[in-house]
Amino acid sequence: MKRRDFIKISAALAASTALPWATSASAALEDLRIIAPAKPGGGWDQTARAMEEVVRALNLAGSVSVENVAGAGGTVGLAQLAGQESGNSKVLMVMGLVMVGAILTNQSAATLAQTTPIARLTGEFEVVVVPAASEFKTLADLTAKLKADAGTVAFGGGSAGGTDHILAGLITKAVGGDLTKLNYIPFSGGGEALAAILGGHVAAGISSLSEWEGQIKSGELRVLAISSGTKVEGVDAPTLKEQGVDVELANWRGVVAAPDLDEAGKAGLLDLVKQIHDSAEWKKILTDKKWTDLYLAGDEFAALVEEENKRTTDVLKAIGLVQ
User: Is the distance from CB of 183 to CB of 151 less than 8 angstroms?
Assistant: First the structure.
């Protein structure tokens, strides 16, 4: 046998016995670390562990682990990624719209501009609710009073500067209300906010649909609007836009990578996340957890982050939370 024929045969055998994932751009990943910049159990942690599950199932990396780095709305983890992981193409960090606000309200030295945007993955839409006995029968009833005197409409929701607070500000701005008088009361959890709404301590509540789904189905809460761009299947409520309020907002989650990646490293992570997203395993997770698929990758995701940063900055400055 001639030497060149032997080389051809050897190469063919090597290709036929290669592991399935070795044909992808992510094959160079001997190990992958996913940072969840929050305590175990929350949305970012669940997203990180769902990704870990799919990476294991598809053999997309030699090993994969999740690291929780909690604090300051995710900005502690962000600082670690931006400051300690430069050029490292074996690490991803889960983040989302909440982090955009937290960077501003915490005056974080680390920003998303110091990361490499990879993809938006999922999102949850927000609902505006009132108790069943509320004087506000429609969104128009609420926004009329909001426009007349924003301070007389108390909203209850999650942390100051978070997605719920941002949505309250965007609605107030869209209907011509005075943002400097926005009356928003933050609560540490959905249970506290629910008690305040049902007890009449606030006029309306804002949260993700899943947070109060049980009370909505039982009739204790009435949904005035949902923040999606189009009607959501299974939700008996019109969107804000359908009712003349030009606002769309999702509490989205995505992933970013370390700064200063080379093109091969960035391409490998983009490919890895696309394989996760396209898999049957990921689709099952979305169904099981009732997460909405909002996949947006690469430059388009980078543009979204910039847009969300500008919109959030404008609103939080008008509210007075950011200088």
Answer: yes
Two tokens at 256?
């970013």
Which strand (E) or helix (H) includes residue 103? helix 97-105
Q: Hey, what are 170's tokens?
A: 């965007």
pLDDT tier at 37, thresholds 50, 70, 90: very high
Indicate the pairing of strand 154-157 with strand 204-208.
parallel
Distances (CA, A) of 292 to 43, 124, 171, 176: 13, 6, 22, 30
Judge contact between 166 and 316, C-beta under 8 A: yes
Distance CA 252, CA 199 (A): 30
- Look at residues 260, 273, 293, 301 and name the one whose alpha carbon lies nearest to residue 97: 301
Predicted confidence (pLDDT) per residue in 288-297, tens digit:
999 999 999 9
β-bridge mates for residue 292, sequence order: 123
Enter the tokens of residue 178.
């005075």
List, for residues 260-290, the tens digit of each pLDDT value: 999 999 999 999 999 999 999 999 999 999 9
Beta bridge partners of 208: 126
